[in-house]
């Protein structure tokens, strides 16, 4: 299969962790170290963790279900080591309150390494190991599935997509990542009968191009369930930019409706994509952020470089024309080196809004 290309965005977790029955938070890099020692910038609840590419196997199945093991058409259940996922969503832009009403899709390979509903896999029409849930008032969703299998060129992983929608079914936020597993646990699972016939996997975390240097922050916290299976937990922190969410019922219904009325004349989308972003330093020591965008319409932009809840650099553009454009934002001398998050809020002339984000590295001062 073709190599996937990583896309960095920001998530966050509470600096002190999240407590609660049955919830185990994956180990994180100390918050202050992510900000080059700038503890004030890492205030209260924020940390930086990477997100990842959507990959080639996402299908908009719209399967509203918690148990994703079966194929709805046949009722056949995928065999494998049982795995329950307990996921929690927090929103930094709401003081790390739970993000309720967000649609969370997951999809992954079966123990033989195949995805459902993919012609290249010979599984067209099947819909096993796919589904979504809408987060409750505590920002929680739960899925019942099986431990994923491996396929050539990738370490074992689960894809996750978090979206919010307004009452009309328009997406107001879209976040993509992948969750990983400790290699030693995967080795244990691969020795079991549903997995062992395939032989030794060819890719582990350390040499997976998508896992990369920051994949350890996306490893699920796993606990044996006492019956041969596992429970995996993870807390996502999301910078939604204030995106509104419909109710749990309307978000799923509106999404289905929007696809059937896509030919309507109403403008509900924003023609903006973030192609690349990076921070640079000139020989004289001047630092700046450069963000390359592809715009298919005129846009107004609010561009911010953020650390935790604090904006460290900002630029507003009231009218950016269509085409490929590079937006530059000066970075002041008081901004310390280290990771930060680029967040761009793009609005079109019809009032539609889209949030684009990417994790970047600020170089040291001269």
Describe this structure as you would to a colleague.
- With 366 residues, the chain is mainly beta.
- 8% of the residues lie in helices and 37% in strands.
- The protein has four helices and 18 strands.
- Strands 3, 4, 7, 10 and 11 form a five-stranded mixed sheet that branches. A four-stranded antiparallel sheet has the order 6-5-8-9. The chain has a four-stranded antiparallel sheet with strand order 15-14-17-18, with no helix packed on it.
- Strand 14 (299-307) and strand 15 form a beta hairpin.
Helix vs. strand class: mainly beta
Give helix and strand order, one letter per element, not per position: EHEEEEEEEEHHEEHEEEEEEE
Catalogue the unreliable spans.
1-46, 247-265
Question: Quick one: overall form?
Answer: globular
Rg (CA only): 21 Å
The level of helicity is under 10%
> What is the count of DSSP helices, taking H or I runs of 4+ residues?
4
Main sheet record: 5 strands, mixed
Mean pLDDT: 80
Into which percentage range does the β-strand content fall? 35-45%
């Amino acid at each position: 299969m073709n190599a996937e290309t990583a896309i960095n965005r920001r998530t966050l977790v509470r600096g002190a962790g999240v407590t609660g029955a049955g919830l185990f938070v994956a180990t994180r890099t100390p918050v202050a170290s992510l900000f080059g020692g700038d503890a004030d910038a890492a205030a209260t609840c924020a940390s930086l963790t990477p997100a990842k590419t959507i990959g080639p196997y996402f299908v908009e199945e719209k399967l509203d279900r918690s148990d994703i093991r079966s194929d709805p058409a046949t009722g056949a259940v995928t065999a494998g080591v049982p795995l329950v996922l307990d996921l929690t969503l927090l929103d930094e832009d709401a003081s790390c309150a739970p993000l309720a009403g967000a649609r969370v899709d997951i999809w992954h390979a079966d123990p033989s390494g195949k995805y459902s509903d993919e012609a290249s896999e010979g599984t067209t029409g099947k819909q096993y190991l796919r589904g979504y849930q809408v987060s409750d008032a505590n920002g929680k969703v739960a899925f019942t599935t099986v431990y994923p299998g491996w396929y050539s060129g990738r370490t074992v992983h689960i894809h996750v997509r978090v979206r919010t929608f307004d009452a009309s079914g328009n997406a107001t936020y879209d976040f993509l990542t992948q969750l990983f597993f400790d290699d030693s646990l995967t080795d244990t699972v691969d020795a079991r009968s549903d997995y062992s016939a395939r032989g030794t996997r060819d890719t582990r975390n350390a040499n997976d191009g998508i896992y990369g240097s920051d994949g350890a922050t996306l490893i699920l916290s796993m606990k044996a369930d006492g019956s041969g299976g596992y429970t995996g937990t993870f807390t996502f922190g999301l910078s939604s930019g204030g995106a509104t969410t419909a109710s749990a019922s309307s978000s799923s219904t509106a999404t289905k409706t929007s696809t059937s009325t896509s030919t309507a004349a109403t403008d509900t989308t924003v023609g903006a994509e973030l192609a690349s972003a990076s921070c640079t330093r000139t020989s004289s020591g001047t630092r700046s952020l450069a963000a390359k965008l592809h715009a298919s319409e005129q846009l107004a932009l609010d561009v911010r470089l953020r650390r935790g809840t604090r904006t460290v650099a900002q630029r507003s553009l009231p009218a950016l024309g269509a085409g490929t454009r590079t937006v530059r934002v000066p970075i002041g001398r008081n901004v310390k080196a280290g990771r930060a998050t680029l967040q761009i809020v793009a609005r079109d002339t019809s009032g539609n809004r889209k949030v684009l984000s990417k994790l970047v590295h600020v170089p040291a001062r001269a």
